[in-house]
Specification:
The chain has helices at residues 6-16, 27-33, 57-60, 66-79, 94-102, 126-140, 156-161, 168-177, 192-199, 222-225, 227-233, 248-251, 257-265, 279-290, 297-307; strands at 40-42, 49-51, 53-55, 83-84, 111-116, 145-150, 181-187, 207-211, 236-240, 271-274. The protein is globular. The protein starts with 5 loop residues before the first helix and ends in a 25-residue tail after the last helix. Strands 3-4-5-6-7-8-9-10 form an eight-stranded parallel beta barrel, surrounded by five helices. The chain has 15 helices and ten strands. The protein has 332 residues and is of the alpha/beta class. Helix content is 39%, strand content 13%. The protein has a single domain, classed as TIM Barrel, CATH 3.20.20. β4, α5 (94-102) and β5 form a beta-alpha-beta unit.
Amino acid sequence: MLHLANHNRRSFLKTVGIAGAGAFLSRAGLAESLVRPVPKRKLGRHDEMVSCLGLGGHTLALAPSVVEATRIAHEAIELGATFFDNAWEYHNGRGEEWMGQALAGKRDQVFLMTKVCTHLPGQQTKEKALAMLAQSLKRLQTDHLDLWQVHQVASEAEADAIFMPGGVIEAIEQARQQGKIRYCGFTGHLNPKTHLRVLAHKYPFDTVQMPLSVFDSHAEGFQKLVLPELLKQGIAPLAMKTLGGNAQSVKDGRVTAAEALRYTLSLPITTLISGIDSLAWLRQNAGVAANFNPYSAEEKAALELRCSGQKKYEPYRHWAYLDGQSPFAGLA
C-alpha cells in the first residue's frame, strides 16, 4: 500500500532509533509497520476506543501548505492515527481551517477534538466559550465535536474560573445537551498542581491532556502527581510534549524519538498527541505505535536514569503561548 524509498527507510531507522529502543525492524518489517494500523485504547471509564497516536493540529498547520496538510491527515487516517487534536486559537484559526478542509468527506472516520481558549479575564464566560465553539465547528466543517477541552489552564485563578457561575462549565453542559460535543476535558503544561486544583472539584471530565515524557518522570512531574489521580477518577490521560516540547533532546543525543514515544506509550495513557508536519514524521511515529512493545520496569528505570536531571527539556514549564493576536479574534 505504502512505499518508501531506501533513503527514507534508512532515515526512519536513524531518526527514531528503533534498534536503540529494543524494537529493531528489518526492511520487510518496516514495510509491514506502515500498513499495520495504529492500535486503539480505551477512553478512560468509557467503552469508546480511540487511536493511541494522535495528530497534533498546531504542528499540522505548520506544514508547507494546506495541500500537504491534507495529505498528512489522509495518510494518518489510513494508518489508523484517527485521533485529531486542535484548538480555537491555533495560528489565528488556520489550524482548524486546514483540518476542516482535510477532513471534508472523512469526518466520520476520525475522533475530532478541539479546545476552547479561556486564558484571559473576560474570555472565561459561557457566552464567549459558546461563540468559540460555533466558530470552531464552522472552521472544522462539522456539526459536532467528539471532544471539547478547556485549553491551557495555567494558573489557580484560571482553574477556579472554569467553575464560576456563567463560566465555561456551563457552556460545556449546554453544548453537550445540544449534541454539539460528546466528551469534555482540559489541558495544561505549566504546573501539575494547577491540574490537581481543577481535579479537586471532582467534575466528571472525560479527558485531561498534559506533558508526559521520560523527562517528566521526576517527583514534581505530571506523571507522579497527576496521572494517578486521573486513573483514580476514570479520566483518560492524553499525553503531549513527549520530546520535551521540541526535538532538542533528540538533536542532543539524549534520547531517540522512538525511545521517547515508546516510553510514553508504556505509561497508562489513552493517546499520545504527536506534533507531525510531514509525511516522514507521520510514518516514523505511526511505525513506532503500530509495533509498540512496552518497556519492562527495568528498561523504563534505566531510561529514566539516563534522562534524569534534564529540566532543560521541559521548556514548556516556563512559557505560555497565545496563538491568537486578540483574545476575541474573529468573534462577533
